[in-house]
């Protein structure tokens, strides 16, 4: 099992390019099941979650050709509708196959993903949404079995604005018979991106990116070409690492508009930010950041996927701040590891009170999930001495070559 070893050695300085967004690429790959024609997708991130979902697509009968960050997926000869537990348990986003498989083939057997390190992560919204479109859904032997000769357009209101449930319903309704209206939809930028792809395939969708989406179902969809947008969480992770190490970096190939709330918080922490169309520069002037309160909520508010990284930043900042996690019930696993490095964090339910320390010390720590790994990387870069981060396979699920990218900005980092 890989470990990352970091010697905290001062500011991150230089330039870094971000990869395509994992959470945008996953639904796009799933959407290729909606057509028998090949899809050409660019800017695919080189992360493990993508290799895993591509293996799953191959298992279903898809032909996948990868060439660097480019990808051609041909679902013309898909011959299975079953996403088995062995694969789904390693990648929860496999739930995204449910909507497209059902819409195109009239049936789908997708293993229930079960809980994960950050919470129970129910899928009731995916199921009730598809039932509203006329699917018969049962749970048998740990599998969601969904059947519908042809889905029918309907109105459905999400109880909670779930990102992947909105994506699943959008894909399913695109091939349904008639008009679907979805209310209380998630607003994350991955949703209008998916809608843009579906429209290029021939779907008729209005309102994606707002809470109310209207989809006029069509009979068939065709292949198209799509470029995955930049990863807003990777962008935010590098900026926070630069802030915590009192650095000065430019993040290239990004989209500042995707993370305005995070940028506002970094400014509140005392960082100077400049931005262009596709770049952001963060400078600290060598100064220590101030602690900032953050409360996670659906987009466009502060993302849960940046909470752990800000916990590391606050642990090293001047003053105290609260970090409130409102999306997932168990997303504070990194706190115990940060405490091993000398962080002063009190947990009260879903609120963490962080008292910033002048310094943290390197220690052996263990990554518990993807963003918790990023938090430990940031803490280690800014800490005194050496930190060994175990179980970095979590990190590799969502960050492309993070160790090389950090090394290029001056980090002393190696993988064993
Ligand atoms: N929820 C339900 N029922 C459902 C679905 C969701 O109650 O059927 C609740 C969840 O328990 C949670 C809230 O709704 O409290 C929002 O969860 P959501 O469904 O939006 O999360 P997701 O779609 O499973 C995506 C990202 C996550 C990210 C969340 C929140 C993908 C593949 N995953 O998950 O990304 O944290 O949205 O923004 O898009 C990550 O990249 O590290 C990651 C975990």
Topology of helices and strands:
Blueprint: E1 4-8, E2 13-17, H1 22-31, E3 39-42, H2 48-60, E4 63-67, E5 70-74, E6 82-83, H3 85-88, H4 98-105, E7 107-111, H5 124-132, E8 136-140, E9 143-147, E10 155-157, H6 163-174, E11 179-183, H7 190-200, E12 204-206, E13 213-216, E14 225-227, H8 232-244, E15 248-252, H9 260-268, E16 272-275, E17 279-283, E18 294-295, H10 307-315, E19 320-324, H11 333-340, E20 344-348, E21 351-355, E22 364-366, H12 370-382, E23 385-390, H13 393-396, H14 402-408, E24 412-415
Parallel strand pairs: 2-15, 3-14, 6-7, 10-11, 18-19, 22-23
Antiparallel strand pairs: 1-23, 1-24, 3-5, 4-5, 7-9, 8-9, 11-13, 12-13, 15-17, 16-17, 19-21, 20-21
Helix pairs in contact: 1-2, 1-7, 4-6, 5-6, 6-7, 8-10, 8-12, 10-12, 11-12
The protein binds uridine-diphosphate-2(N-acetylglucosaminyl) butyric acid (EPU).
The site of uridine-diphosphate-2(N-acetylglucosaminyl) butyric acid (EPU) has 23 residues, from helix 1, helix 5, helix 6 and helix 12.
